[in-house]
């Protein structure tokens, strides 16, 4: 049997993603009803973190527990991974001792090399290039609130980082549009974004233009993990790329504000917006739990 990994959003087809959303909806309602659901009894997830996390660790660890399985947390500091054990060797060993692996690391190449040497499915819990689990949760949140995302417009304001790249991949797969506005020098790179074409996104110099008519306005930190040495320069470069109420007024009336969190109020977003009525940031965070449970079940057991 070929192993299915989730290293990039478009590792799954549109119909696979849709079936994960359907399952997530069902899993969420069962969870809310305190109804036990243990399809992954006796299965183990290993979570490898080379960067910090709150949401990703908690949602995978609780999710696995709620599905009847177990999760083991490893970090670079206190495993042999931080002492130079080749990633290929680590993959061989780790994947013989568990049923599924989630990795948060730096370059995408690291997770790709791990997956090539793994006997079990590997899930991307964030790399410098992509954050596919986040966008699964974000689109699921949009669908819950507003229905299908097909043909809708997402305005991405700020850095063309891992979260932005993943929105772009999702747009190509699920047929919606992304308006991207970044400062000069931080534009989307097609190849790094893993895109086949630029058919589903448009770049805007002015962030206000990007927000016009959007159904979702979204942003992220100006300095992602691993880029801390550029922080000072980025604060200057991104000063005009803050999502505020004037920008939200240009979007559609029922537009949602999204942010993967953690957020920096007063930098990429004002408190008024993130704590305002259009913001769905807590729902996005919660939905990480439900969509990832559906993803784990799909990768381990297939669709049923
Ligand atoms: N959004 C997200 O992935 O959060 P953490 O860094 O806390 O995992
Ligand atoms: N772009 C951010 C996302 C954090 C969840 C980072 O990579 O640090």
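Sequence proposed for the structure above (304 residues):
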């Amino acid at each position: 049997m070929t192993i299915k990994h989730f290293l990039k959003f478009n590792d799954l087809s549109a119909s696979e993603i849709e079936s994960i959303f359907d399952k997530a909806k069902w899993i969420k309602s069962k969870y809310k009803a305190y109804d036990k659901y243990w399809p992954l009894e006796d299965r183990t997830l290993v979570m490898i973190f080379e960067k910090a996390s709150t949401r990703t660790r908690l949602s995978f660890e609780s999710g696995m527990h709620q599905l009847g399985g177990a999760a083991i947390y490893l970090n670079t500091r206190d495993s042999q991974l931080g002492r130079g054990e080749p990633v290929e060797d680590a993959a061989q060993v780790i994947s013989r001792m568990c049923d599924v692996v989630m990795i948060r690391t730096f370059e995408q190449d690291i997770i790709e090399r791990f997956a090539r040497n793994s006997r079990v499915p590997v899930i991307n819990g964030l790399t410098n290039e992509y954050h596919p689990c986040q966008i699964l949760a974000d689109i699921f949140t949009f669908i819950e609130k507003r229905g299908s995302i097909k043909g809708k417009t997402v305005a991405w304001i700020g850095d063309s980082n891992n979260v932005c790249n993943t929105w772009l991949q999702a747009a190509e797969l699920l047929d919606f549009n992304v308006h991207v506005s970044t400062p000069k020098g931080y534009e989307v790179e097609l190849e790094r974004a893993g895109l086949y074409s630029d058919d589903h996104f448009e770049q805007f110099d002015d962030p206000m233009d990007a927000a016009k008519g959007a159904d979702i306005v979204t942003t992220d930190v100006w300095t992602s993990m691993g880029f801390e040495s550029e922080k000072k320069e980025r604060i200057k470069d991104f000063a005009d790329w803050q999502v505020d109420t004037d920008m939200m007024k240009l979007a559609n009336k029922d537009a949602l504000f999204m942010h993967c969190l953690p957020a920096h109020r007063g930098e990429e977003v004002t408190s008024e917006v993130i704590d305002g009525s259009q913001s769905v940031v807590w729902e996005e965070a919660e939905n990480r739990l439900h969509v990832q449970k559906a993803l784990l079940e799909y990768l381990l057991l297939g669709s049923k």
